[in-house]
Specification:
By secondary structure, the chain is of the alpha+beta class. The protein has one domain: Arc Repressor Mutant, subunit A (Orthogonal Bundle). The protein is about 70% helix and about 15% strand. It has 4 helices and 3 strands; from the N terminus they run αβααββα. The protein has a 3-stranded antiparallel β-sheet. The chain is extended, with a radius of gyration of 20 Å. The model has no long low-confidence stretch (mean pLDDT about 90).
């Protein structure tokens, strides 16, 4: 019984840690994903759907503050328009947003290449040690 309780508590802590680290990893990628998707004008709902279709689901409570921050930094333009008898706010990259996106893509690719090397190297090392 003790073993089962201990194992359950350990697994819950491990799951919490995983979720925390996963959220941190995702949070660092969301701005890049939003900027990339806003090369084409979209309103919030269609942006959220496009990201979800790409496997990056995001809560509205995360998306809209991010959009406001990016716009406040001059990386996005937005405009209210009526569509289908409803007012919707459309977003698109500004020229500064496009420049920033290109810089972030270069950085992402550098980080990704480094991580791939680190992961591959550590995988080989751990297999040789075992």
């Amino acid at each position: 019984m003790y073993y089962t309780v201990y194992e359950t508590e350990y697994m819950a802590e491990e799951d919490d840690l995983y979720e925390s680290l996963r959220a941190e990893l995702r949070r660092g990628s969301l701005g890049l994903a939003v900027l990339a998707r806003l090369r084409v004008e979209r309103y919030g709902y269609t942006l959220r759907q496009a990201l979800a279709d790409d496997g990056l689901e995001m809560e509205e409570s995360t998306l809209y503050p991010l959009l406001r921050r990016l716009e406040a930094k001059g990386l996005l333009f937005s405009e209210w328009r009526e569509e289908e008898k409803r007012k919707k706010r459309f977003y698109v990259l500004s020229p500064a947003g496009e420049d920033m996106l290109q810089r972030l893509i270069r950085e992402w690719r550098t980080i990704n290449a480094s991580l791939e090397t680190i992961i591959a190297t550590s995988h080989k090392t751990s297999n040789q040690e075992g």
